[in-house]
Each structure stands twice: as C-alpha cells, then as structure tokens.
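Quick start: read one record
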Amino acid sequence: MMEKEKVYFFTDYINHISYKKFVAIVREKNIPFGYIGSRNIESVIRQIYQEMCK
C-alpha cells in the first residue's frame, strides 16, 4: 500500500460525484486532506509548504 501524508483536492476541476467518492476514501483511510484554492502554481506551492510547516 502506498502511504500518503496528505491529499489535496483542486475542486475547480473535479465534479461533485467524484469529489464525494474521493473524500469518502480518504476519510475511511484516515488520510488528512486539504484544498488547493489557486491556479497560480507559485501560490499552490506556497500554500502546501505553509501547511507542511505547521
């Protein structure tokens, strides 16, 4: 099994049905998850980095 530290969802590009399925899986497996709220790659990297440093 592949271990995941955290899963991020970019909800602009995922339909509601798929989102609900993915969230159910990560919750079932107790994998932390978050959301990406920008299309700007530098902003996304900064967001993930800041969350990793918490």
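The radius of gyration is 12 Å.
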